[in-house]
Amino acid sequence: MNPLHNRRQFSRALAGGMLLPALSLPATVQAKDTALPVPASLPAAALAASRQGEPLVLLVTLPGCPYCELVRRNYLLPARHSTGLPAWQLDISSRSTPLTGFDGKASTAAAQIKALKANFTPTVLFLGPQGQELAERLVGVAVPDFYGAYLDERLAQARKALLAL
Fold first, then answer.
1. E strands in the chain
2. I need a surface site. Which of 21, 111, 119, 133 has the fewest CB within 10 A?
3. Can you say whether the dihedral through the CA atoms of 77, 69, 61, 150 is positive or negative?
4. Bridge partners of 133?
5. In whole angstroms, what is the distance from residue 63 CA to residue 46 CA?
6. Average per-residue pLDDT in the chain?
7. Residue 32 — pLDDT band, cuts 50, 70, 90?
8. Between the CA of residue 156 and those of 1, 5, 74, 112, what are the distances in Å?
9. Which one-letter DSSP state was computed for residue 133?
10. Can you give the pTM of this predicted structure?
């Protein structure tokens, strides 16, 4: 069999597999039912989180991103509802929604994401009261079966780093 043909079949199967999570829910349901809140001020959100002994958990997202939806629906929203985890989201394409940055200046989500160098979605950041990263960021969803363990590990690291501040 032609090796090029096999690669094309593999590429098609891989692309099709990536689209399946997005096809499982209508876009309106995804955005409305699983959106995390958007902070008006990063310093205020981070300070409130640190007062709870928690890092500011910030999801960098993109509308229509099936992996962002997976992270929100299966991990961050349940943790927010059950334990009060201060999880928020910023849309990487939002250039008009006002947001106060960690420098105290008026900005936008897109500008803050660029400043944080979080150019891939989904990215989960674990930030301290001054905007410092308290644990290694989670970039993408490489192995969905282990994502919860990776998230728990990063949260534990971030909480420990927060206590040391």
1. 56-61, 87-91, 98-100, 106-108, 123-127, 138-139
2. 119
3. positive
4. 127
5. 24
6. 85
7. low
8. 50, 46, 19, 25
9. B
10. 0.80
CA dist 21 → 67, 88, 143 (Å): 8, 22, 14
Q: Is the pLDDT of residue 17 over 60?
A: no
CATH code at 155? Answer: 3.40.30.10
Q: Which residue has the tokens 């043909």?
A: 5
CA separation for the pair 13, 82 (Å, rounded): 37
Q: Output the pLDDT for position 137.
A: 97
Domain presence at residue 8: no
Q: What angle do CA 62, 64, 68 make, to 5 degrees?
A: 60
Q: How far apart are CA 99 and CA 95, in angstroms?
A: 10
pLDDT at residue 33, as a whole number: 65
Between 146 and 29, residue with greater pLDDT: 146
Tell me the three state secondary structure of residue 90.
strand
Range of the domain at 85: 27-164
In a domain, 148, yes or no: yes
Distance from C-alpha of 43 to C-alpha of 86, rounded to nearest angstrom = 13
Query: Do 148 and 75 contact (CB within 8 A), yes or no?
Result: yes
Q: Per the structure, how many domains does the chain have?
A: 1
Tell me which of 20 and 154 has the higher pLDDT. Answer: 154
% of the chain surpassing 70 pLDDT: 80
